[in-house]
Amino acid sequence: QVWQIPENGLTLSLTEPVVVLEGHSKRVGIVAWHPTARNVLLSAGCDNAIIIWNVGTGEALINLDDMHVDMIYNVSWNRNGSLICTASKDKKVRVIDPRKQEIVAEKEKTHEGARPMRAIFLADGNIFTTGFSRMSERQLALWNPKNMEEPIALHEMDTSNGVLLPFYDPDTNIIYLCGKGDSSIRYFEITDESPYVHYLNTFSSKEPQRGMGFMPKRGLDVNKCEIARFFKLHERKCEPIIMTVPRKSDLFQDDLYPDTAGPEAALEAEEWFEGKNADPLLISLKHGYIPGKNRDLKVVKKNILDNKPAANKKSDLISAPKKAADASNSQNDAKLDEILKELKCIKDTITNQDERISKLEQQMAKISD
């Protein structure tokens, strides 16, 4: 279900989603918006299928249901949304071109251990993975999708059994690793030189984390040199964790805040599905982020009546206003048909429930007799 948050945040509980997307046969555990195309959403479910939706029309346009034989642990888009990478229970990392519906690269036994893995795309196109060794040590690795034979770098961490969840900042090339059940966050910088993955520091707290959320860069306070904000899920509360770089100057620190991906889409959904690619549209955070006008999501169901060929040539002679009136009439007719269908469904449901109630009443009467 896709929900529209009102302009100034929630004041009442929402009860009506903007659109319901139906297509998976089992529970859906993963959803990820396309990084550059408007209203394109990826979902992955326990049916081992990945579906890519055009939310603006409520349609499933790509269904990748035969690529994974086992549970999908996570899915990540690359920087411009032309590829996705997935980590699966069969210990494989796959790089997939969703529009061609083909696997571009894959690596078996990315991590030898049986516990869950994660894989994410970095800004330069490389892939970062976390997993476990055969001896159940936690590992992190860096891969080049053009040659998945050997990792660019492979580091062993410790023997804790919490799955390492990676959170990536493409602007500073820092990866934050939050272990499930850990009470710490480790962070690393990814560089072009050996050892490629540089350990920076560890944030420690007392309470273990159940889960972790990550604030987008444009939600950070640039006046306080805040470079990351996490939302740490405890047993009964959610706690913000703010990471700042200590600087004496009050001036804007442009090395901490290079231009970052803004909320505006670089492509329309239809353009992306037709094969176009575009990098994210970047914005400056110099004066903090000022949100633009909230563009409401309008779901437009495609109407097959609009594509009807003209019955005869005479219709070409009808004046333009008449055509506009006809178009609005046909739209009204379509809406009316939809409402009548819904009413019929409701009536049928009521009839069925009435029959069921009377049967149950008869059974209760027999039992009491």
Automatic annotation (TrEMBL):
Family listed: Belongs to the WD repeat coronin family.
WD repeats: 21-63, 65-106
Coiled-coil ranges (or none): 336-363
PANTHER family, per database record: CORONIN, CORONIN-1C
Keyword list, A-Z: Coiled coil, Repeat, WD repeat
Highest taxon above the source species: Eukaryota
A molecular function (GO) term: actin filament binding
GO BP: any one term: actin filament organization
Protein name (Swiss-Prot/TrEMBL): Coronin
GN (gene name): Coro1c
